Amino acid sequence: MLKLRAAIVVEADRPGEGVPAHPAPPARPQREQQLMVELVGEEGESARRPAIADVALVGRCEVHDEVIVNVEALDLGLGSGGFDVVHVNLTRGLEAEGRAGANVMKLNYTSLQHTVAPVEGEELGVPLGRPAAVLALHGQLAAVAWAFKQRTPDARLGYVQTEGGALPGSHSRTVAALRERDLLAGHLTAGASFGGEGEAITTGGGLHHGLDQLGWDAAVCGPGPGIVGSSSRLGHGGMIALESAHVALALGCPTVIVARMSSSDDRSRHRGISHHTLTVLDLLLEPVTVALPAGMRSPVGADLRAGLGAVFGGAMPSRPALALEVERPVRITRHDWRRAAVDLPGYAASGLPTETMGRTLARDPLFFGAALAGGAALAELAQTARALAGSGGEG
Known about the structure:
- By secondary structure, this protein is of the alpha/beta class.
- Helices cover 26% and strands 22% of the residues.
- The strands form five sheets. Strands 11-10-9-12-8-13-16-17 form an eight-stranded parallel β-sheet, sandwiched between helices. Strands 1-2-3-5-4 form a five-stranded mixed β-barrel.
């Protein structure tokens, strides 16, 4: 059920506010507007609430505009939804402009359905031969992209945003920062996700377009910020990784699963290697590559506990010993487990995001270490693919 309220805009940022100091690439105009609104019929501090407006969908807002906002996420106190979302501007109507050539609908049969021009072409060139990394969480993206660039400075890495987390592509500040620093060569939004530099009807279409038409040397695909979860094996947004990995494999992409790991998550099912990643690795129809920080023998059990001290040493938080006895599916042994050197101090000094779900890099080095290892493994596969292409081999 939609939970909508009338509100008045009391603060609104201006074009260019709230974006990096250096100009973003021309292909990435500011789409998300930060607002403060006051609910109609209420008084006091509780009536004033942060909100966002997707400018491409509902147009810009000005102070004193009357708007309808969706208040569900903020009322529920969701960690990734600490704001209301503008549904319509009653004062200005919808001033957003459509895209030329748009003939495909996204957010179909909702009140925010809109047309896009899909990137998919008629040709299907497979196998692609270029690698793809699959994320469990958006918070892994920056570390993967940074590690990839450290290993392959001249390679082009693109991002295909999938379902599973936030759907608006404009909602990711991480993507904007990575594009500004040339750590990402492009941003496509696939499926119900929307608002990237190009719109794909499917994840497969986005991967194919980026790797085959845009000249990416590698791709990373995964959900936007935030993720839904029910603590069950299958009922969480991280399951999109299973679908993404299968389509990447089907397109002939050497595929890396970036393991979700944690050394300090309060929930035992996410400590060590998360049950989200274990479920995906257990259910995959074909083997993939999975990376661990160098020096770590196993993602579970006593070997993981010993490896944490060996790899991260003093970076590990001082807290009681972790309960790492996670059930280990037998089928995870069929995957290609690789060890990769990680540079936590270098990443910490990069200025990129170093916090996940309220935990800093110093408190949860394993989360960032696993993502950095995934980026390094992706770079290794990209180097191999380029060498094969240069020698006239497949891919």
